[in-house]
Amino acid sequence: MGVPVASFRVLADAVSTAQNFVDVFIGVYVLLIFAFILMSWVRLPYSVWLSRIQRFLYDVCEPYLRLFRRVLPSMGPIDLSPIVGVIVLFALDRILTRLLELLH
């Protein structure tokens, strides 16, 4: 009358898949933030494709970074929101990984 072993394997596989998804998603998002920062530092020649890439990075990264710009004090030309945003993403990754390991 116990729970079949197959259901534990399915649960373990689902948890492992969720862990991989979280790791990859946060890793890709951190890379997008770094690309957004680099493209904001360098003045690139006008190109339709570069403009589309810059717009994509702005649309993806700016809403998340804006959350931290509201909270952080202004430091003049220095924007600390990407640093804080990346630190929060890594902390969130660790927390979610630990929570998913408890289910494993």
Main features:
mainly alpha, 104 residues
Summarize the structure.
The chain is mainly alpha-helical. Helices cover 81% and strands 0% of the residues.
Could you explain how this protein is built, in words?
The protein is an all-alpha fold and 104 residues long. Helices cover 81% and strands 0% of the residues. It has three helices and no strands. The chain has helices spanning 5-41, 48-71, 81-103. 4% of the residues are buried.
Largest sheet report: none
User: By helix and strand content, what is the structural category?
Assistant: mainly alpha
What would you call the shape? elongated
Number of strands: 0
* Average pLDDT score: 87
Distance between the amino and carboxyl termini: 22 Å
By DSSP (H or I, 4+ residues per run), the number of helices equals 3
Beta fraction: under 5%
Return residue spans where pLDDT drops below 50 for at least 5 consecutive residues. none
- Work out the helicity level: over 70%
